[in-house]
């Protein structure tokens, strides 16, 4: 199959999985969604060998369709030749206090997806790292280093974009403490307006 044929329906497939991820993680306006992509893998070739701006454009369009509705910040991961730096809107970088790095992604150093995003995101810049609220990996590029702790896998209804394997994750805050820790307010309180604890939770005291 020719490369241009393989880009057909990519945008709609990407839109579908981004909407699924946004729903699973309750992604909100202003939050960060990191996207790692190998356009070579989308076309059924080995990562880093056959990048294509056509596939990048389709993936970008699918993400943008959801971003316009929700208002999250898409963050596009570069390849290892730029140390997996990320393309992001400057307003988002400033909002999250991210450190900028000096490079311009191109297909041979950054990857076709990051290069395309850099030229289409409003006031794009490059940052060294982020702690994103959710992430999508198209082509097994590995985005875990840019996710918040704790990552929770989400299984997409579409398991591949083109020929590229898809994985996704949302994140949640760490659950801290031991057997006495409480993680949800259930609306039940005692006479002192404190949460009612189980016997295990109420053993001992922190007073």
From TrEMBL:
Domain of life: Bacteria
Segments forming a coiled coil: none
InterPro entries: Antibiotic_NAT-like, DUF436
HAMAP family membership: UPF0340
Family: Belongs to the UPF0340 family.
Name the UniProt record assigns to this protein: UPF0340 protein BBD42_10820
Organism annotation: Paenibacillus sp. BIHB 4019
């Amino acid at each position: 199959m020719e490369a241009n044929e393989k880009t057909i329906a990519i945008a709609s497939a990407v839109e579908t999985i981004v909407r699924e991820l946004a729903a699973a993680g309750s992604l909100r306006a202003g939050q960060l969604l990191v996207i790692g992509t190998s356009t070579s893998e989308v076309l059924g070739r080995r990562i880093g060998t056959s990048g294509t701006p056509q596939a990048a454009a389709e993936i970008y369009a699918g993400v943008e369709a959801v971003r316009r509705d929700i208002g999250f910040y898409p963050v596009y991961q570069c390849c290892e030749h730029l140390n997996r730096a990320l393309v992001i809107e400057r307003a988002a970088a400033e909002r999250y206090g991210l450190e900028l790095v000096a490079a311009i992604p191109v297909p041979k150093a950054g990857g076709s997806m990051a290069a395309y995003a850099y030229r289409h995101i409003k006031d794009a810049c490059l940052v060294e790292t982020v702690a994103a609220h959710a992430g999508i990996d198209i082509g097994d590029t590995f985005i875990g280093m840019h996710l918040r702790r704790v990552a929770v896998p989400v299984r997409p209804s579409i398991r591949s974009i083109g020929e590229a394997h898809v994985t996704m994750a949302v994140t949640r805050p760490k659950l801290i403490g031991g057997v006495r820790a409480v993680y949800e307010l259930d609306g039940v309180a005692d006479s002192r307006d404190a949460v009612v604890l189980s016997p295990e939770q109420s053993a001992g005291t922190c007073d």
